[in-house]
Design a protein that fits this description.
heterodimer, A: mainly alpha, B: mainly alpha, about 80% helix
């Protein structure tokens, strides 16, 4: 039990370090909120007339529709940023010093992911405040907002774990940084920015079955129309799947790194 | 400037351009992000917002023809900003000090950097145009392509002077996000996503006064219709104006650095 508590303390300390690190390095913190916020503002005003298209879901405004996509983009970037910081730790030898300490190896990974989860919560808070300032009406009220917080933090952890597996395998920040374009590919092939029935083929078909679309739609429903059982269930299953994939990949990557020494 | 000083400057510019091109051959991977980002954005935005072309008042049959100039300009702007990042690296590593110690005039050194950016912008531009034509972008005609090429090269030169201004000011590669984000913001706060009458809110106002809107419309004209002088000259004037402004700032920054 005391060992468990000690590991929990390590996870907490490493999580705090991870958050401090993000705020101390503007190049890590800026892409998380600045870029998605700018893109949200530009896309909302630039493609705002999309709501006039036939078959566009009924919304109060295009910002209501776009908010979930912006949060998804930011939490994916948060996951990637956490993994970049992890790779930098490996490059600089900080992880080697931690591995020499008498703590569970997994707490090193969990500490980083805890930091990513907190960043996810901060991101959700940022975008919810922006939404409220610019007139978004959260149809599901407080419960919907709480659900969004949970979704953003969970997705950030899932993507953080996937990106961490690459950081652990390669040990190179430049490789993890190279995932940035891939994030946008995945986002463009989901319903993050537009409903799938109005997207062009083949992106529309891919978006229809992209698990990320299920998560985004699950986050969007409480904003634009209120909770929907099927969307919520699909979002939960997708997030569980992404978490499972992320933790499996990162666990194997950590084991492989430990074997290599 | 006399004929002899021009002929003396040309080898310096050629050497600086040659050095920049050498980087491309020696580190080809460094050019990939500059090509990848505009291509991904072009394909992604087309797939996502493609049906915006169905809105009444949209001036293009296909959204890909409407959006391709944005990606061309994005590629040029990133290339120009990358020149600023490379310059900041040269300053950090002390290589630029050696260049300043040479008898080459300051404007000639800047001209070498700017001209190399113009040439390098042709790489993402060519890739985006090839991808665009493959997915059904309207052929702009040779005149349209020529206007687009001139504008793209000019924009890369302008972005390079912006990058150089920041590099001289901050003297560190950490200023890279500012160089890149600045150019991206300038390109996207235009009629990038939709024609001016279809923009909403603050963007409509900003796009009306953003000089890059004129540049974008000049690049776009061949892809969505006919090329005319009336649609070309405002873009040229805007581009020259911004270029002169940032060239002045960059030269002032270089002078301050050596003062």
């Amino acid at each position: 039990m005391s060992g468990f508590r000690a590991n929990l303390r390590v996870v907490g300390q490493l999580g705090r370090r991870s958050i401090r690190q993000t705020f101390r390095r503007p190049q890590l913190a800026a892409p998380l909120v600045v870029f998605p916020t700018i893109l949200l503002a530009i896309q909302t005003a630039g493609a705002g007339r999309a709501v006039d298209l036939p078959q566009f879901p009924e919304v109060n405004g295009f910002l209501d529709f776009m908010l979930a996509g912006a949060m998804m983009q930011a939490c994916m970037l948060a996951g990637n940023t956490g993994a970049i910081a992890l790779a930098l730790d490996i490059e600089m030898g900080f992880d080697d010093r931690l591995l020499a300490a008498p703590v569970s190896r997994y707490s090193l990974l969990l500490g980083r992911l805890m930091g990513t989860a907190v960043m996810g919560l901060l991101i959700a808070a940022w975008f919810i405040v922006i939404g409220l300032i610019f007139g978004v009406e959260f149809q599901s009220g407080i419960l919907g907002v709480a659900w969004i917080f949970g979704c953003v933090a969970t997705t950030a952890v899932a993507f953080g774990a996937i990106a961490a597996s690459i950081a652990l395998r390669t040990g190179k920040a430049s490789v993890v940084q190279g995932l940035f374009p891939l994030i946008f590919v995945v986002l463009f092939l989901s319903t993050a920015f537009f409903p799938d029935n109005l997207m062009l083929q083949p992106a529309a078909s891919i978006a229809k079955y992209n698990p990320l679309s299920f998560v985004v739609d699950g986050m969007r429903e409480p904003i634009i129309s209120g909770f929907s059982g099927s969307h919520t269930l699909r979002a939960l299953v997708s997030m569980a799947g992404l978490l499972l994939i992320g933790f499996t990949l990162s666990t194997f990557a950590l084991k492989s790194r430990l074997k290599r020494g | 400037m006399s004929a002899s000083s021009i002929s003396a400057s040309l080898p310096v510019i050629r050497s600086l351009v040659g050095r920049s091109m050498n980087e491309l051959f020696r580190v080809p991977g460094a050019a990939i992000p500059g090509v990848l980002a505009p291509t991904i954005f072009f394909l992604g935005l087309t797939a996502v917002f493609g049906n915006l072309a169905l809105l009444p008042g949209f001036e293009a049959d296909k959204y890909q023809s409407f959006i391709i100039p944005v990606s061309l300009m994005q590629g040029a702007a990133f290339t120009g900003a990358a020149t600023g990042v490379n310059l900041a690296r040269d300053i950090e590593q002390g290589w630029f000090d050696r260049l300043l110690a040479s008898p080459a005039p300051r404007p000639v050194i800047l001209a070498g950097l700017v001209y190399s950016a113009s040439l390098r912008a042709l790489i993402p531009g060519s890739v985006v145009i090839c991808v665009g034509l493959a997915i059904g972008v309207r052929w702009p005609g040779f005149l349209g392509l020529l206007v687009a090429t001139v504008m793209i090269m000019g924009l890369a030169a302008t972005a390079a002077t912006w990058g150089a201004t920041l590099a001289f000011k901050f003297k560190t590669q950490s200023a890279a996000p500012l160089m890149q984000a600045g150019t991206l913001l300038a390109v996207l706060t235009t009629t990038a996503y939709a024609p001016l009458p279809l923009l909403t809110g603050w963007l409509k106002v900003v796009a009306t006064y953003n000089p890059l809107t004129q540049v974008l419309e000049a690049v776009r004209q061949g892809f969505v219709g006919d090329v005319s002088w009336a649609d070309t000259w405002p873009g040229l004037v805007a581009l020259i104006g911004i270029w002169v402004f940032f060239t002045f700032l960059a030269l002032r920054g270089m002078r301050k650095m050596t003062a």
